[in-house]
Amino acid sequence: MSESTTDEPTTGESHARDRRDRAGQKWLSGFVSLIGFWLAAAPFVYEPAQSMLWNNLLVGGAIFLLAGYNYYRLSTGHSTSTGVMSLVALLALWTAVSQFAIGGQFAMDSVGVADTGLIWSNVVSGLVAAGLSAYIAYAAGRDVRTGTAAGTR
Q1: Residue-range definition of the domain harbouring residue 78
Q2: Which of 1, 7, 67, 72 has its CA 20 to 30 A from that of 81?
Q3: Is residue 74 domain-resident?
């Protein structure tokens, strides 16, 4: 009996799965980048409190640039930057939580109370971006090959 009973994929199947995983990570990174763009642009759609305006501009812009960088890496054949996507997940989580940490609808400043639509847009967008970024970082970390010395194949 020369049949193999292992569930290990053949070399061709492994490479095809890697390409599908990277393509999925690439498009998810692009989607997260668009969420970051929305977070940065949302204060111009809704009426923000001053603190939320700057938080959205800075954190949304950072998410947009970092997730866009990961999209670029995957588009040029490099692997996902697990550290960058982990940072994006933390920034997105901060966006969701900061609505209540820095005042949110209870914040009264020179502009006034923030629009409830902006608060919930930030919470939902932040949670979605955090979940997708965490998944991308997890999937990229899972693809690390073990059992070989560094720099050898």
Answers
A1: 37-142
A2: 7
A3: yes
